[in-house]
Design brief:
- The chain has 2 domains: 121 residues, Response regulator (Rossmann fold, 3-Layer(aba) Sandwich), CATH 3.40.50.2300; 94 residues, Rossmann fold (3-Layer(aba) Sandwich).
- The protein contains 10 helices and 5 strands.
- The chain has a 5-stranded parallel sheet with strand order 2-1-3-4-5, sandwiched between helices.
- Strand 3, helix 3 and strand 4 form a beta-alpha-beta unit.
- The two termini are 28 Å apart.
- The relative contact order is 0.12.
């Protein structure tokens, strides 16, 4: 029998935690702990070993960004973190993605999208479409132009893998990558998986961030119009 997904909810508003718990429990997703501060969140995650953490970005004692960094830094079996925020395109959201979070949710998210988000990141996918992440990066990323092209493992990529990373960062889906490169979609998936593994990245969101911060792609470069992706939320 398949084990239920285990979730920790960290938010300083009890009503938010209660509402999310009821929604998730109704779909067979187990809320194993709750926390009202960042300090409590870190302790709860380490104690209960959840699959997914719903992390409020602003909490007492320790903010959600710092808590996310503590949980994900150097951890081999860390949970997936979804950032909760009341703001779209918040600079803290970008910082959380850079720290390793797998995406973000607005607190007024419809119940079905909350459940879908947890299921999505649990399987290892990123929550944000690459184009949405790209807009965050273009708005907030700061690069040192003297060192931007360098990355500890970027030279390990083959020319094809580097091309895949560049196109992925421009917002193309696997199907669109396959069409652009005249490859089978299964082959593209293999290339993407190898890129993530070689660069030590958790998901496609981090790949987009890295591509911009290393100078592999520059703000303004795009694989297709953002309007074409406005309804494509799941990566």
């Amino acid at each position: 029998m398949t084990q239920p997904i285990r979730v920790v909810i960290a938010d300083d508003h009890a009503l938010v935690r209660t509402g999310f718990r009821m929604i998730l429990n109704a779909k067979g997703i187990s809320v194993v702990a709750e926390a009202s501060t960042g300090t409590e969140a870190v302790a709860a995650v380490r104690r209960s070993a959840p699959d997914v953490v719903l992390m409020d970005i602003r909490m007492p004692e320790l903010d959600g960004l710092t808590a996310t960094r503590e949980l994900l830094a150097g951890a081999e079996a860390a949970p997936r973190v979804l950032i909760l925020t009341t703001f779209d395109l918040d600079e803290y959201v970008y910082a959380a993605l850079r720290a390793g979070a797998s995406g973000f949710l607005l607190k007024d998210v419809p119940p079905e999208q909350l459940v879908a988000a947890v299921l999505t990141v649990r399987t290892g996918d990123a929550l944000l479409a690459p184009a949405i992440t790209r807009r965050l990066v273009e708005r907030y990323a700061l690069r040192d132009e003297a060192t931007a092209p360098a990355h500890r493992d970027l030279e390990r990529l083959t020319p094809r893998e580097r091309e895949v990373l560049r196109l992925l960062a421009q917002g193309l889906s696997n199907a669109e990558l396959a069409g652009r490169l005249y490859l089978a979609e299964a082959t593209v998936k293999t290339h993407v998986a190898r890129v993530l593994a070689k660069l030590g990245l958790r998901d496609r969101v981090q790949a987009v961030v890295l591509a911009y911060e290393t100078g592999l792609i520059s703000p303004g470069q795009t694989g297709r119009r953002d309007d074409d992706q406005r309804n494509q939320w799941w990566a």
